[in-house]
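Let us work through a complete example step by step.
Step 1: write down the sequence.
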Amino acid sequence: MAEQYLERLSAAVDEAIPRSRRGAKLECKHFFSGAALYADGKICASLTPVGFAIKLPETLRAALLKERRARHLRYFANGPVKKEYVILARAIVDDPVELRRWLTTSIRYVAGRPRSRLRGGRW
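Step 2: predict the structure and record it as tokens.
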């Protein structure tokens, strides 16, 4: 079952961020019952049975939650909220432009690479 999540996450990353534009080292690996995306060895996103989650700074998480474009990440119904992560709304995940925007933001946040320090200012 986890294999399907790994394949879907890898495909989403490849579509959103072509290898020729990557600044951080990106790897998709198995993660519990799903898959996780690592940027320079740190998790920045996951795709599991609960949804497509990304790690973001507090202000961006709050904005997405307020706009109802994301919800808090909990891996189990009564489990703790994973504070730095949100589960993206289906509308974002299904929109390649939106998904690219949020994945890129998460990767930069986790890898500690502001836009100006990337190769040519791009991913």
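Step 3: interpret the result. The CA atoms of residues 70 and 89 lie 5 Å apart.
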